[in-house]
Amino acid sequence: MTLAADLRLVLGADRVLDHPLDLQIYAKDAGVTPGTVAAVVFPETTQEVAAVVRIAVVHEVPIVARGAGTGLSGGAVPTRPGLVVALTRLNQIWEVDEAAHTAWVGPGVINLELSQHTTPLGLHYAPDPSSQSACTIGGNVGTNAGGPHCLAEGSTVSHILAVELVTAGGDVLLLGGAAPDPIGLDLVGVVVGSEGTMGLVTKVLVKLTENAPEVRTLLLAFPTIEAAAETVSSVVAGGIVPAALELMDRPMIEAVENFKSCGFPLDAAAVLIAEVAGHPAAVEAEAQLVADAGAAAGATEIRIAATAAERDLIWLGRKSAFGAVAYAAPDYYLHDTVVPRTRLVEAMSGIYEIGERYGISMLNVFHAGDGNLHPLVAFDAKEPGMLEKVRAAADEMVKLSIEVGGALSGEHGIGLEKRDLMGEMFSAVDLDAQARLRDAFDPIGILNPDKVLPEGSRCFDFGLVANLDPESAA
Amino acid sequence: MTFAAIEEWQVSAPEGAPAGALVVAPPNLDAVARVLGWASEVGRPVLPWGGGTRMGPSGGVVPEVVVLTSQLTRVVDWQPDDLTLVVEAGALVDDVEAMLAERQQSAVLAERANGSTIGGMIASGASGYRRLRYGPTRDRILETVMASGDGRVFTSGGRVVKNVTGYDIPRLACGSLGSLGIIGQVCLKLWPVPESAATLDVTVDAFDGLYRPMALLETEDGAMAYLAGTAEEVAGQAAAVGAHAQPGLQWPMPLGGDVQIELRVPSPLTSAAVTQLRNAGATEFRAQHGIGLVAAEFDSWSSERLEELRTWAEGQGGAAVVLASPQSDIDRWGQAPGSVDLQRRVKAAFDPRRIMVPGRLPGGV
Questions:
Q1: What is the rounded end-to-end Cα distance, in angstroms, of chain A?
Q2: CB within 8 Å of A78: residues ≥ 6 apart
């Protein structure tokens, strides 16, 4: 029987897609690289996911897990005709434990909907990617997603206590648990961020965070991007870790204002959005510290949101950035690299230089507080040679980030887009260790192949005697 | 059979180390890797040794080689303005924290570390009481450089505070108890130390009224809440619960007896765990409310008591872990997790000849 026929036996006709037009829709994520899909399935239970995996194994078809498809690194794009397992229908919020501040949820639950669900309890799910109104918890687990508020609260991995995992063999395992420090190796920490290469996550135990009693959101305008970056460095060095520190440059401010009119100052070279949250007595002092740091760096305007509506307007501006770009240009390529916070100014000027040299139109909005850069290139892919130019500039920006001591990706993942740049950061021995770890989870190489690790990562076959000098062996 | 250089690295055994083993203190991580490569080749079980403070019962493992990290003590790179620190694994936690305190920073490792090393703290998966505020230690290990069980030196993670480049091996190393290899160097995320701190004498009932305390502890002497932040915030919170406040964070002395058991349960069951341990005859205990960890000390060993505690804790989805026991071959963990086969394969990925503390992890992994 064919793959699709076998799948239909388990899921029925309407939850298996194999019409070429349908397959085309699932051949891409929110990034720029398309792939090839053999079939798309929509399982609704853990058992169905396990059955689907076993069928794929029999047919030797690669398995690619998919959430909302908001990923930007090609993590959910099959490179060879693959089976896309859409986990969006596993979207139950199973149980919220108010006392423990935890919730068991399906991977298909939308990030923002989880926080909305727990708002009446005074709790929220802290990681808040810009795509939070669309992206799923399962996708967040896959990429170890971040967001503005991960500066103080940490990325997704710090908020995942346990996962139910369907393995490459179609077995169901529970990793981690509600009790602290589960015994044995921390496999949850490995699965989070593994981009579907270690199993399919079918249930997640998330940690919920107490809503802060008081929040202050500030908008600071600067005459230069360097002044804004300096403010970030001096706030971080000044003894507080704000809830969020986000930076936008002039092209991005203009795009956002054209799109949503949030009242951002159009004459500024950069704005910094800072948020401090916590006990009322602390928030006052910390907001002052941020304002003082901005003033010292030459801020031309410092606005402190006086009402919830003003705060929401500032965040609306920040979170519509990507929508604003989509409105202004047919295509965009969003980067994601990290640099040490002390090298922000230097990294930003390097990135502007690269953009100018390639003659590309670039906008910046990023998580400055943790050095997570997001240069965004707006372009028209129909223009001949344009995509190649954009990619070449991207490679240079990534290499620059590594040169100043940074990393390839802060929150979007490696996927396909950055796979071949892994060697910029890791040696062959380092990559071999990662490949061995992956093979421990997926010995048959069926889970999202061709992602994360470049080809040849397993090329090392060290003899154990390599470390021994035979002359000195006694 | 051995190799020439290893003789030079041989040292006398630290107190508490297993008798009869070859004890070496290699001068650097490459040398550590050579020792492990050799031990893999000849099939000799290895026990990594930091400060020897958190070794726990041996679980019947008889190491033939003990590798000390005592020569790996350098502070490699401290970037105060970036809140990151690169340090070698053999550095003492107390020394590192004292250095960081000069710039009002902390690695938020376990308090009162008493001779523990950075590497030992990470390998044992230990967190400080302040995990209630800052999360467990594993949230702050940004990069590791390790020697694998088969003698390869490899780097994972990166020296930035936010990073998803490659698999999170630093997190895997945390709590791995030396089963994968030896941690030689780490990059840690630091936190600024708040300007003001206080320790409040309270009752357990008052815990709920506090916003984001550093820690909520209960011992045989009573309950204490630990606050830190701005002076106004600390004073305001103390006044709101009407408690007597001592300045600074006054941590209890660590447990030190020969018989210690730790219950790990979902956090709302912390008080229930205290009751279980008291009923079992605990003389002293350290309960971390909001976390679900309760460590207790007993005057004497009883296997039946351990079994009873285990049955209860495992029934709550937790565990009863033996931290210290006069019976060296005691089962430290109880029921192994369902992922034990996967755990075995993950260990083998780094330690294919199974020389690194074989059997030390749950399920004899």
A1: 62
A2: A27, A35, A36, A37, A38, A62, A64, A84
Number of domains in chain A: 4
- The answer to whether the Cβ–Cβ distance between A178 and B343 falls below 8 Å is no
β-pairing verdict for A16-17 and A200-207: unpaired
Partner residues linked to A463 by β-bridges: none
Give the chain B residue whose CA is nearest to the CA of A140.
B164
Tell me the backbone φ, ψ of residue B308, rounded to 5 degrees.
-65, -45
Q: Is residue A473 part of a domain?
A: no
Q: What is the DSSP string of B95-160?
A: HHHHHHHTTTEE----SS-TT-BHHHHHHTT---TTHHHH--GGGGEEEEEEEETTS-EEEEE-SS
Asked whether the beta carbons of B250 and B214 are under 8 A apart, the reply is: no
Q: Is residue A466 domain-resident?
A: no
- One domain for residues A337 and A418: yes
The model's pLDDT over A133-180, given as tens digits with 9 standing for 90+, comes to 999 999 999 999 999 999 999 999 999 999 999 999 999 999 999 999
Domain that holds residue A286: 213-327
Chain A nearest CA to B150, separation (Å): 6
**Is 90 exceeded by the pLDDT of residue B1?**
no
DSSP designation for B206: G
Structural domains in chain B, CATH included, are 4-70+348-364 (3.30.43), 75-192 (3.30.465.10), 196-247 (3.30.70), 260-324 (3.30.70)
pLDDT digits (tens, 9 = 90+) for A249-284: 999 999 999 998 899 999 999 999 999 999 998 998
For residue A197, is it within any domain?
A: yes
Q: Would you say residue A136 lies in a domain?
A: yes
Nearest to B236 among A185, A281, A371 (CB): A281
CA dist., res. B285 & res. B217, Å (int): 10
The tokens for B137 are 């230690």
Which residues in chain B are closer than 8 Å to A158, comparing Cβ atoms?
135, 139
Are residues A320 and A360 part of one domain?
no
Kindly state whether residues A226 and A299 are assigned to the same domain.
yes
Residue where a domain terminates, one of A210, A232, A256: A210
